[in-house]
Structure formats: C-alpha cells, structure tokens
Amino acid sequence: MIENNPNKNLGKEIQAFERKIKSLMNAQTLSDFALEGASIGTWILEIPTDLMTIDKNAEKILEFNPKTNSEWNQYIHPDDIEKVNAFDIEITSGKSQTFESIYRIVTKSGKTKWIQDRGKTVQCDDKGKPTRTAGTICDITERMKSEKKVKESQERIELALWGANLGTWDY
Prior knowledge:
Layout: H1 6-37, E1 40-46, E2 51-54, H2 56-62, H3 69-73, H4 81-93, E3 98-106, E4 112-124, E5 130-139, H5 141-163
Antiparallel strand pairs: 1-2, 1-5, 3-4, 4-5
C-alpha cells in the first residue's frame, strides 16, 4: 500500500522555499555591499506621482533624502538644471529609454558635488508611456577636480611652449 502523506511534501516545499529566500537575501546583501563599496547610490522614480525613493548610499552622496524628483531638482546647480530637465523630458515622454548625465548639485551645506547619474525606464503603462524609472548616482567630484588640474597643466605647458617659441612633435 502506497502512503500519500501531504505533510511530507509540504515540509520539503517549505525547506526549498526557505533556501530560495536565504539565497535571495545573500544576493541582496552582496549587492548592497558592492554598491556601498563603490560609493554608488540607487534611486527609483514613480513618474505619475513624482515620488522618489533613494537608498542610503544616494542619501549619503546627496546629503539629503529627496521625496520627489522636483525636490531633487531644487539642488541641481543652476548652470546644469536646463540639461537635466531636457533628460527628464526625454525619459518621461518615452523618447528615450536610457540616459546618462553628469551635473553638479549644491548640497544643503552649500558644497558643490559633481554627480554621474545613469538611469532607464523600467516600467510602462498599457499605452507604452513610462511610469517608473530607476538608476544610479555616483559622486565623481574628485575625478572632475583631477581632470580640471590636468587640463590646466596642459594649457600652461602649451602657453610656455608658445611663449618660448618652441614646438612639440610626435614620434
């Protein structure tokens, strides 16, 4: 006689489910550590409501926790807001599915930071209109300072060569 014990199968299913949950939690922890180690923050924007959610890394980079995209945009450097608004329009209108932008923010303490912002549309409504975007931000202030120093050094060298009536050559 074959015994059919539903509790025996249920126990195996619960164990398999627990293993999947543990695996997902480990993957999430690994992802969190990797993002934190790389100083990368994440964000999600619900386009119809303008509500924004950011992780602790993004909050650390921005030095505040914006609740809406409009609030985030209030901290974008005045010289960069037009460029950022153009990206916002392209994404929210559906003209583009991805974007990458480098711009400055002015923190609540008044410090200017260079931000690299990358994102993409991750959800659309039944008419194909974007409803959710997600992305990452990274503080690239030190990189931008280094690039500026290199450029200034190159300009000084070129000026010195010109002033000394010397040239350069490639070989």
